[in-house]
Each structure stands twice: as C-alpha cells, then as structure tokens.
Amino acid sequence: MTNNNHDATSISATESVVSESETIESGASNTVVKKHTRRDLIKKSLTLGAAAGGSLLGSRALASIPDPLITEVQNWNRYLGEGVDARPYGSPSQFESDAVRRDVAWLTADPKSSVNFTPLHKLEGIITPNGLCFERHHGGIAEIAPQDHRLMINGLVDTPLVFTMEDLKRFPRHNQVYFLECAANTGMEWRGSQLNGCQFTHGMVHNVMYTGIKLKDVLAEAGVQLKGKWLLPEGADPSHMTRSIPIEKAMDDCMLVFAMNGEALRPEQGYPLRLVVPGWEGNMWVKWLRRIEVGDQPWHQREETSKYTDLLADGRARRFTWTMDVKSVITNPSPQAPITHGRGRTVLSGLAWSGHGHVKGVDVSVDGGRNWHKARIDGPSLSKSVHRFYYEFDWDGSELFLQSRAIDEKRHIQPTKNALREARGENSIYHNNGIQTWHIRPDGSAENVEIS
Amino acid sequence: MQTNTATLNLLLLFVGLSLNAASVNAEESKAEKGKAVFAQCAGCHMVGPDAEHRFGPTLNGITGKPIASAEGYDYSEVFKTAASDGMAWSVETLDDFLKAPMEYLPGTKMAYPGLADESARANVISYLATFDAEVLIAESKVEESNVAEPAVKEKAPVILAKDVEVPTHGVLHLGRAAHVEEISAWDIDIRPDGTGLPEGGGLATDGAEIYDAQCASCHGVFGEGEGRWPILAGGFDTLTDDRPEKTIGSYWPYLSTVYDYVRRAMPFGNARSLSDDDVYALTAYLLYLNDLVDEDFELTSANFASIKLPNEDNFISDSRIEEPTFVSEGEPCMTDCIAGLAQVVQRARVLDVTPDTEDDEAGAGLD
Known about the structure:
The complex is a heterodimer.
Chain A: H1 15-21, E1 24-26, E2 31-33, H2 38-47, H3 68-71, H4 75-78, E3 102-103, E4 116-117, E5 150-155, E6 161-164, H5 165-168, E7 173-181, H6 198-202, E8 205-214, H7 215-222, E9 230-235, E10 245-246, H8 247-252, E11 255-260, E12 263-264, E13 274-276, E14 289-295, E15 310-311, E16 317-318, E17 327-332, E18 344-353, E19 359-365, E20 373-374, E21 376-378, E22 387-395, E23 400-408, H9 417-424, E24 437-440, E25 446-451
Parallel strand pairs in A: 5-14
Antiparallel strand pairs in A: 1-2, 3-4, 5-6, 7-8, 8-11, 9-10, 9-14, 11-12, 11-13, 15-16, 17-18, 18-22, 19-20, 19-23, 21-22, 23-24, 24-25
Chain B: H1 3-15, H2 21-38, H3 77-84, H4 91-99, H5 101-104, H6 118-129, H7 133-148, E1 176-177, H8 180-186, E2 201-203, H9 204-214, H10 216-219, H11 255-265, H12 276-289, E3 298-300, E4 315-316, E5 344-347
Antiparallel strand pairs in B: 2-3
C-alpha cells in the first residue's frame, strides 16, 4: 500500500482507482480521503478487469525510491491518540469499515422479515465476531429485558414449568463452538451463478462459541412422559417462530444458550435466550425462546411445510431435511477479495463445515476440478464447527478456476452443483452444498462462474 | 390504548374552549367510532406516544402536516412527488385519499381499496386528530415530571437465604409450576388432526371482509401477492414448472398450518390481534380463494379436520442419503478427474444482481 486508503470499502482492488481519480490531501493532524459511495467503488472494482486502462494490480515494479512512510515521521508517530475510556465498548478499526453485514434487497418483501450476510471474505480463523453474524428475522428484532423473559415447558410432562433467566443460569453450564447455517444458504445459486461474492453466495453461516445449558437437563426438571417424542420450541418475537424437533436430537446435543463468544447474546441473535440445534438448519435455532412443548407427533408448522421443504423435479417435496450437509467455500481470493499482488506466492484460504460432525479433509483445485491438492486445516477441528483451511502456492499469473471440496467424518464428499441438480432439479431452494467455482483472471479479479 | 381518552380530553381542552358541551361530545363520539374503523389500519400504521413506523408510517399529527413528512419513513415515489409539489394533509385531502387511495395517489404502497362510507372516513379522520404530535409531546413531558417524584420506599424485610422456599419437582428443583392460565395464554399451536383448535367457526364471506381490510394490501385481492409478499392462492399444477407457485392450494400439505400461522403471526406487524373466529373466517376464505370450497362455506372446529389439502400426499421424508453423491466410493479422485480444460458456461456478471452493482434489483429470489 502506498497511500492511506481510509475508505476501507475500497477493497485493495481499488487502490489504483483511488490514486488515479481521487485526491488525497495530507493535513497537519489528519488525513482526508475524498468520500465516495460504496456503490461507486464496488462498481469500479467489479468492472476493472474488463475496462480498458484500469488495472487491479497497479504498478507492481519493485520500489525504486525510499518509501516516505518509512523515511518521514507520520502523524500517528507524533501526535497522541485517544486515552482509555474513549471507547468503553471497543469497535473495529476505522480502516475496517467494509467488514459489515450486507443484505440483498430484492430477495424479500420487507426488512423486518429478511436476511443479511456475513462478510466471510473479511474473516480469519474459525470464530465469527458477534457483530458480523448474519441475521434472519421473521418479525424484526424483539427487544426483551432479561427480567421480563420466561421459558415455559408444557405438554407431555409431569410438571409444566416456568423458568426465569436466573433459574436457567443455575443449571450446569457448557461451552461449545457450533456453526449455524441457514438452509437457504447458496439457495440463489440453484439455477446458476448469480451473486458475485462469497458474502452473498455463502454468507448465511456463522460460527460461535456458545455458553448455555443442556436442553435435556431442563426437560428433566419437568419430567418428559414416555409418549413424548417431539418438541415444539417457540419464540417470543411477533412471528412466534416454531419448529418441530424430534426428542432424540434434544437428548443428544441441543442447548439453551444465553451467551455467544463470551458476552451476552446479541439482540439480533435472540437475546436473552436461544435454542442451539447443532448441525441442523439455522431456522430451527429458535431465537427469543419462550416455550417448549412436548408432544407425541410433529406439528407441521409453516416453517416446515410451506418453507424449508425441498421441492424436487418430479413435484414431490422432502420435509424434515434437518442436517446441513458437508460444504466448503474459498473465501480468499473471491470476487470481493481479488488478488492484488501479481504472480508469486499466494495464500488461498477458506471455510469448511458439516452438520454430520468433523471435517476430515479439504481438497483445493486451481484448474476447475481436473486436479486436486490437499489443503491444510489450521486451528481447532471441532465437531459441527467450521474448519479453516489454507492452500499456499506460487501463482504463475495465468487464469485459474478455484474450487474447494470438503469431506466429513461420515466420508460424505461435497458434491458438484450439477450432481445436486441431477438428483433434485433446480427448485429445491434449500440445502445447496455444491462446489463453488471462482474464476481468477490474469489481472487478479475474480468472478462467480459455472464451468464445463 | 389508555392514553387516548386523556389525550382527547387534553386536546378538547385546547381547541374546545369556545365550543359548547354538546359539540364536544359529538366530536368525542366521532373519534370513538373512528377508533373502531382504525382497527383495519392498525396492521400497518401506529398512533400514540409509542408509535413507530410499520409497513406504513406513524400518523401522529397528520392533519395539517405536509405529505410524506414522517421522519425516517421511506415513502413511495408518488408521495415524494406530491411532497415536492407542496401537498399537505387536511381533512379534505385525507378524505379524498381514503375514499380510494390507489386512485388518488396511483403507485402508493398503501394497497388498500378505500373506505366507501363517508361517515366512516370522517370518524377515522377525527380519531387521527386526537393524536396531535405537540399534545403527545406535552403529555409525555407531564408523565416524565410525574415519574420524577420518587415514591417513598418502605424498607423491605430482610429474607435470609436459608429461609427461601425450594420446590420439590425434578432433579435440581429449579423453576416453578406453570399456572393453567399461563399455559392456555401461550399454547396456541394446532396439529393436522385438529389438536389445539379452539371451539368456534367462521364464514368465508366474513373472512372476505377481514381479508380485504387487513391482508389484501400485501397478499393481493385474490391472494396473488403484491411485490415479493407471499402468494396465497392458485398455482395448481405448477410444481414441476420452471417457476413453481407454492400456494396454500398448490403446495401446503395441511389446513391446520394456515389456522396456526395466521393466528400466531398475522397480520404482519399486528400479531395476535385477530379473534379465534376471525381466524376461522379467514381460513375459510383462503380455502375459497383456492377454489376448494364454495363462497358460503363455514369452517368450524367440528368440520376442520375433515378438510384435506390437495398436495398432502406429495410430501416425502428426507431421502438425501439415497442420492448418488452420498454413496461413498472410497477416496475421491485427485488427478486427471475431468478431461479437457475448464470452460466458463455461466457467469454471475451476465445477470449482475449483486448488491451495489449496476442492475441489482431483479434476481431470482428465495420466495
């Protein structure tokens, strides 16, 4: 970087755009970057590769003159910064303002019942920061004071019970890292490549360390009767979200959680209480959880009949398709994060996960699936949690077709999108875990493509 | 809304000094009647001190205000144009608009057919006049100053931890027994066999009136769906098409889901506001819109479970594991897996619907 590019939305791809068309004035005590809209910048960056004259790579000759960032004293070297308490709850650096959730306005009718997307291309490691976990609401964000929240257990139990948040915090606590993926993640890609960026194609997933209690411990207090085979969790928001869950899952690994990544749940993630259903569709992880009914049959609620059922090519539809299958995506490089350094050493990075358990391996291809290389999984490998993988290689500057393919502990291999289409048709919406292809052009830009 | 009468009185105190008692009472009763009319607006509009924008803007102090001036609300283009033309809301313009909103301001988001009854319009306009923005502010200040006087607290008796009563149920003895009233307040779920249905019933013809007033603005007069709001009716024999229409009639397996969902979550922005019989009537009307019953049909707790939806038998259990890709055949291929070089067959940029790019308005949605 040879300029102080304060507008972080100008992903480094726009470096040359900034230097050729924007004025950067260095004042005495601060640096002013001319403001431009995010729309302008991304538009420019996306058209850069094709546009005559624009270059993603800029001038990449070895430095011929000494770097003024080193030879001259910079403002931040001289002038004092803010003291303690200037930021009682700290925020990301001002230079990271592009690492935000984004929505796709045309997807839904109203923002109160809509979704936004995690910026996967801006993340490292396996944990998603709380403020970047994608949101999906069906009646807006319910704001509930914890002292006003109640959890009821009723139905086929010996003693129907009511708990306060204080009561719930007296059960044994557990800490677990789990991914949450919306069943519709990648759903817009069933008919072909549509959205340019892993944030939009794969951003309905996040990975969080939850603190909470085991659902089975809470059910034991009420005493589930023998004929109790199904649960109906319900939210306190205006959608009163409900899903039917078989009791075996509840007794296996479901949790009631009140904290994420070390702090209280965020309001948009169900504060003060959320159900965690590891490895299963995000829609089942009921937020603002206020009630769990025990019954002997499923309820066939709206979100498991009209929605979250998978229409097949022959007109039949699968229901109760709970598990999220093995999946992976390369997050860097990707359309929102092109290669800006030219040929030579290149770090490819991505995420892999499976609702069936651990990810056992990830393979990476740079030639569109003709040949595969074992990627390196780094960081914790936890069951039903995302895994971080890397593949480091020397790029010769020629075009690439990047793909990743994950394999889980059940030996399920991530399929191609065409294999899924062959099995299910193109109207399933949900459970698209097909292999993603990014086309890297000789100028380093990247595009979402499908290949032969 | 307990503050309404107080607001009304306060307002009448300001404006009614020169009026005699009879006309004050007449105005008050008009506003009272207007409150009942407003019930059909409340799905989209809020009034009062805690009002927030919903699908429609808040309406506090609307009379006399310039059009499209509620802060923070995204008005339709026709409203913005009217605002730049200097239009304001008066009793007259409100009356004209409410008579036929979509004719008066074509393109308004308020897909409401209109209030034909002149006195109903007058009443609801009177009702809206009771929510004068300045009066509401004055009143909230009065409330604040009341709050400012702290009540003299009596000293609570000290309870020792050892004296706290511990329940006997369960393993850890946590939580307390639920009251029957608490369970019936929250346990509103319905199953396909009719378990959970309240006693009662409703006519499709009554459902039509509720639907036109409270549902049609999003779901369309015939259930065809406005914009990206869900389509509720039609779509028969489209499930194998390129663009299937998944409606109650063409797709949903069980009628119980309709009753359950409408009762728990609709109308959008005013959940739990319909009576049980209203929900029966609406459910009956939705069957009628899908050509599954006659116009004069009555749906009741007694005949509910006998009604089957056409697509019930087309739902199957999760059979993904039988797909070829799940059948493990040892190690995956690592070298020379596909012949020839990769060729691009489709690219996102052709149909660029990525946010913040040129044409980001028209992708294939998630329904």
